[in-house]
Amino acid sequence: MSGDGSGLVSGDGESNNGNSGGSSTLRIGLIGHGFMGRMHSLAWQSVGRAVEVPLVPELIAIAGRNPGSVAKAARAWGWQSWTDDWRTLVARDDIDVIDITTPGALHAEIALAALAAGKHVLCEKPLANTLAEAREMTAAAEEAAARGVLSMVGFNYRRTPALALARDLVAQGRLGEIRHVRAVYLQDWINDPEFPLVWRLRKEEAGSGALGDLGAHLVDLAYFLTGRRITGLSARTRTFVEERPLATSASGLSGAAGSERGRVTVDDAAVFFADCEGGALATFEATRFAPGRKNAMRIEVNGSEGSVAFDFEAMNELQFYDATSDAAGAGFSRILATEPQHPYLDAWWPPGHGLGYDHTFVNQKRDLIEAIAAGKAPTPSFADGLYVQGVLAAVEDSARNRSAWTAVTQEAL
């Protein structure tokens, strides 16, 4: 079933792929209308207005499984048309980019179909539910790139200005030899044992729990900041509440609970320590059972000549320590990452007027649009997503086998 969004323009027209150079617009098809679908919709709406981009996004169509819900989303978020069959959206010749915000179980099938149809693809993280799916998606993306069809994984935290600044400091050698990475991601939204069994708590839909939802961000950021990948690790995972009331809503973050109960089939928390390329040590913790922590994502990198530390709950700030400075006045300095020369801030507000979570997605869309217009591969790539998937698989293997050490597969390095 499909519709025109209650009076919105139908969006039909001839293809004008962003790589052709013959169009000033980039026509978007979004699949998924939950929390991430809403966030991506707002970002596509904002990017052409807030930022000067070479191709202005046009919101052609949105797809979702529930006709009533997706029709409502289309009207609310400015999409010209809607459908409850993602395949019809992929087949349309008036769409240049497919943006995938569905549960992980659908990532591989949709991405493979979209790439085969010649559509650029933005796929939410983690790339897939399994390592095998990630391999297949990466191979397809590399083949498509040879035809000028580009792809990117949606690790939005890379687009936080303070984190991008931290990466610049590491790349400039301001931290010296990298020795430690410490990363935690703490939430509490399922701490209540009567919270319903939504899709994020089912392995067949989500792939994994806190590990893939939160830990994937940490693994990607550790690589983004340091340029060093994980080579081996030892891990433990835990499911604290093994049964929950069945959800009466498909929402990934909320939903009413019914009287029947079902089994939680993903992890509630994951911890692991790792070796990185170049000899650095790293520790990671991801949990949805940290009462009082709503979205506490923190990462610190220590080197021979300094350290950087970041807390997303103070997302416009970066803490920087210069170990080469005079000891009498040494200490962590607070950098307010809102100056025009800081990453991404050329497009936004005057100094001191901070950005928010939604701006990371606008910055993401900006990077993707600029890459498509230039015909250059955007980052993070599907190959980067494959690396993260390899680490997640190694964590699961280590936890399942209670092994002292598990190597990360070389093909994911």
From TrEMBL:
Establish whether keyword NAD is in the entry: no
Q: Where is the composition biased (Gly residues)?
A: 1-10
Q: Per the database record, which ranges form the GFO/IDH/MocA-like oxidoreductase domain?
A: 165-308
In this protein, which residues make up the domain named Gfo/Idh/MocA-like oxidoreductase N-terminal?
A: 26-146
- The protein's superkingdom reads Bacteria
What segments bear the compositional bias annotation Low complexity? 11-22
Q: Which Pfam families match?
A: GFO_IDH_MocA (PF01408), GFO_IDH_MocA_C3 (PF22725)
Q: Which residues form a coiled coil?
A: none
Region of interest called Disordered, as start-end residue ranges on this chain: 1-22
Alphabetically sorted, this entry's keywords are:
Oxidoreductase
The GO terms describing molecular function are:
nucleotide binding; oxidoreductase activity
Q: What is this protein called?
A: Oxidoreductase domain protein
